[in-house]
Amino acid sequence: MNSKAWFGVGFALVAGACGDDAPATVDAPVVVIDAPPMVDAPDPIGFMSDEGGEVRFEYVGFGVGTGALEGTASARVIAFFEGNDDVDFHSYPTIPGCTLMTDDTKWPTSQPTNRQYIDVGQLTLTNGTKVLNVPKNPAPADALSRVHGANNHYLHFTPGTIPNDAATYITEKTSYDVIFSGSTTWPAQIFPDAIQMPAAFSLTTPSITTPIVLAANTALTINWTPVPAGQPAGVPAPWVAIGFVVGGTAATPGAIVLCVEPQDDGSLTIPADMVNAVRTAGPAGTMIRQTFIHQVRELTNGTTVKRRRIDMLGVWCHATGYSSN
Questions:
Q1: Phi and psi for 20 in degrees, rounded to 5?
Q2: What is the pTM of this model?
Q3: Whole-number Å distance between alpha carbons of 225 and 199
Q4: Hey, where are the domains in the chain?
Q5: Which DSSP helix (H) or strand (E) runs through 209?
Q6: Going by C-beta distance under 8 Å and a sequence separation of 6 or more, which residues neighbour residue 299?
Q7: Of the candidates 26, 83, 79, 116, which has an alpha carbon nearest to the alpha carbon of residue 298?
Q8: Which of 130, 237, 276, 322 could pair covalently with 212 via S-S, beta carbons 3.0-4.6 A apart?
Q9: CB–CB of 186/302 below 8 Å?
Q10: Where are the strands (E) in the chain, listed by range?
């Protein structure tokens, strides 16, 4: 599969810490977006459509090497929305296999130079019983070291806190609506069943309690237990992503290496040259092992912004620290 043949694949990376947000009642927005293609559109919105932002909804379980977070599990949401940028599409990482991400030319770490952000109002995720209102992020960069500027993006996962709130907001094998309350420049909208949370999965070797030490010129094999995804008909199958991240600020490298494998395979080997690349770019940081489901929905206000895709990702992730010898 080449770098543009993503079709149902995405990834989300873990770095930093989590934030807290109490459940709240959601007022019914005005507009429902339920994916019928526009009359004048030659094709429906898909993975090859122009980029319009993303919503990543993550279960993050913390293992060895994550400091005070070790042994906890938190919810995290990262989101932003863009229209009419100077670069509308970035190629995807190679799948299956491993990709060096440090040149920031591939989705999801690449960014247009002239970014035009959209204020969608209050961002809310809900499965009908669990409700998460996601605040705007006052920090300039997100956990993948993408720079958006203060309050141009959304975050539930406040650095420096230990919310341990995954059970409050997340249920495995469940779909979530994504809701925009709307603003003075954007209509209120609902995207039904836009995010599918995959099934919980378990690591085998190395375990979540085993320290990860990268050795020079040595491949690293990761094993996990495949589990039925439980996704509804029409929802893409889950994949597994293994990533190495040093992120959270504009000055950090963010994602260094990303490897992707079908979830059913149960094993992935990171080649020695990729291990060496991680050791060079970030000798210590966070290793993520996650299963995820990637869907897309159209970002449009019906007039000035049309036919841009929002990447909607449901992620079940294990995060551990790594080091180099």
A1: -120, 150
A2: 0.87
A3: 11
A4: 31-324
A5: none
A6: 52, 53, 81, 83, 118, 305, 308, 309, 310
A7: 83
A8: 322
A9: no
A10: 31-32, 50-62, 73-81, 97-100, 123-126, 131-134, 154-156, 174-180, 189-197, 202-203, 212-214, 220-225, 239-246, 254-262, 267-270, 285-299, 308-324
